[in-house]
């Protein structure tokens, strides 16, 4: 085999290897980008579902104000249509999320895909440049082979061909190194961009979780306290014409309840647990909650709290316990018309168990119009957030009972 033939063979092999590596890198980068986009779509769907739950659920009214608020929370463009538009086929293009609404309508959330096609366009240009370069090398080698007799006649020196071969190899090596450096630089930029995107997504998730937490705290704590204060003021108004002394007592109770609610709001802003239960007994804290929500109505309470069990609860479990009791008592008084409550916290084999039962009118859990609003969803979410489990039993005329099981380190 002549030196020129060996050079031609070596050049073709090097070019094929370089093109193969480039195509492989392009396929790998595209696979990574598709994976990241799919993960981003899944996160968007989860955030949108959480936002829907936070702003009232699927069955709530879908007006412009709610769409604007939900769009600001999720960072998407929202619209309500009579039927869903066809989904986009391009995995790297804009992606959409659909949620069916009552009345045969659809909530459509559109979000632009990240600008991730730049690397692929560059790689395509690199591959095209390599192909053109390979063709030029092949053409140059063919011309070289065809003109070899002329060059042989012009010069018989064996060093001339070797020098030309060395120059061609040197040029090919420099070109390969330069292209490899460009690919390495683009890969590094892509990795940094992906890391920044993941960091921004984590920040957005934390912000959304904090908004949901504040919404639950306001619904289960502040709103229930304000509702109780309103009932107390209403009772004082009714007594103002018949018993001014009793009306004044009710007004004083409402004022104290409003002041405690203001203190709770400050605690939420500061990130503290309501009433700082650790500084007082859990029995006292829960009794105060029932007294607030009673708002002067007749109510008999049987409360059995094992303080040893309460000390085994974590801070999150203790906070969620007070909020779950607040929501359950409010529902029993407002919706169930209860006149007697049984509240207990005891040790069980799995840890601690909180139970609350009332003698209210109850409701049918199997009916679609049963009162399963934010209150029930919030109580279940609070229990699961602190690692516990939530269960509710109710029947028409048989009252309602809830049970929350908390895992504890030492429940004995």
From TrEMBL:
Q: What superkingdom does the record give?
A: Bacteria
Keywords from the named record: ATP-binding, Kinase, Membrane, Nucleotide-binding, Phosphoprotein, Transferase, Transmembrane, Transmembrane helix, Two-component regulatory system
* A GO term, aspect molecular function: kinase activity
Q: Which CDD domains match?
A: HATPase_UhpB-NarQ-NarX-like
Q: What is its EC number?
A: 2.7.13.3
**Keyword Hydrolase part of the UniProt annotation:** no
Q: Which parts pass through the membrane?
A: 126-147
Database matches in InterPro entries: HATPase_C_sf, HATPase_dom, His_kinase_dom, Sensor_HK_TwoCompSys, Sig_transdc_His_kin_sub3_dim/P
Q: Name the catalysed reactions.
A: ATP + protein L-histidine = ADP + protein N-phospho-L-histidine
Domain Histidine kinase, residue spans: 213-410
Question: What's the protein called, per UniProt?
Answer: histidine kinase
Q: Which organism is it from?
A: Actomonas aquatica
The opening ranks of the lineage are: Bacteria, Pseudomonadati, Verrucomicrobiota, Opitutia, Opitutales
């Amino acid at each position: 085999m002549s030196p020129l033939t060996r050079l031609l063979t070596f050049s073709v092999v090097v070019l094929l290897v370089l093109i193969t590596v480039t195509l492989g890198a392009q396929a790998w980068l595209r696979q990574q980008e598709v994976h990241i986009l799919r993960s981003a779509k899944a996160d968007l769907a989860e955030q949108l579902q959480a936002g829907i739950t936070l702003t009232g659920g699927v069955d709530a009214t879908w007006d412009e104000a709610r769409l604007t608020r939900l769009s600001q929370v999720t960072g998407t463009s929202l619209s309500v249509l009579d039927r869903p538009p066809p989904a986009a086929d391009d995995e790297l293009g804009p992606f959409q999320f659909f949620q069916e609404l009552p009345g045969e309508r659809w909530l459509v959330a559109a979000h632009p895909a990240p600008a991730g096609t730049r690397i692929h366009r560059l790689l395509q240009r690199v591959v095209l440049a390599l192909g053109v370069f390979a063709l030029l090398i092949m053409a140059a080698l063919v011309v070289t082979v065809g003109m070899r007799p002329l060059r042989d006649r012009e010069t018989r020196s064996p060093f001339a061909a070797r020098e030309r071969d060395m120059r061609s190899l040197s040029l090919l090596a420099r070109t390969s190194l330069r292209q490899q450096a460009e690919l390495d630089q683009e890969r590094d930029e892509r990795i940094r961009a992906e890391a920044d995107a993941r960091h921004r997504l984590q920040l957005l998730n934390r912000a959304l979780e904090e908004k949901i937490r504040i919404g639950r705290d306001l619904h289960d704590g502040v709103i229930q306290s304000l509702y109780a204060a309103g009932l107390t003021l209403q009772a004082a108004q009714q007594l103002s014409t018949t018993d001014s002394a009793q009306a004044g007592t009710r007004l004083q109770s409402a004022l104290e309840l409003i002041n405690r609610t203001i203190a709770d709001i400050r605690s939420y802003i500061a990130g503290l647990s309501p009433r700082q239960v650790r500084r007082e007994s859990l029995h006292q804290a829960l009794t105060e909650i029932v007294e607030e929500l009673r708002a002067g109505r007749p109510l008999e309470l049987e409360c059995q709290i094992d303080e040893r069990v309460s000390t085994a609860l974590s801070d999150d479990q203790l906070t969620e316990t007070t909020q779950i009791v607040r929501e359950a008592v409010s529902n029993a008084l407002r919706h169930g018309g209860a006149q007697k409550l049984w509240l207990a916290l005891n040790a069980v084999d799995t840890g601690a168990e909180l139970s609350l039962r009332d003698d209210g009118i109850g409701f049918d859990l199997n009916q679609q119009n049963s009162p399963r609003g934010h209150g029930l969803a919030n109580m279940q979410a609070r229990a699961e957030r602190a690692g516990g489990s939530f269960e509710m039993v109710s029947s028409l005329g048989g009252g309602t009972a809830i049970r929350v099981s908390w895992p504890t380190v030492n429940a004995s």
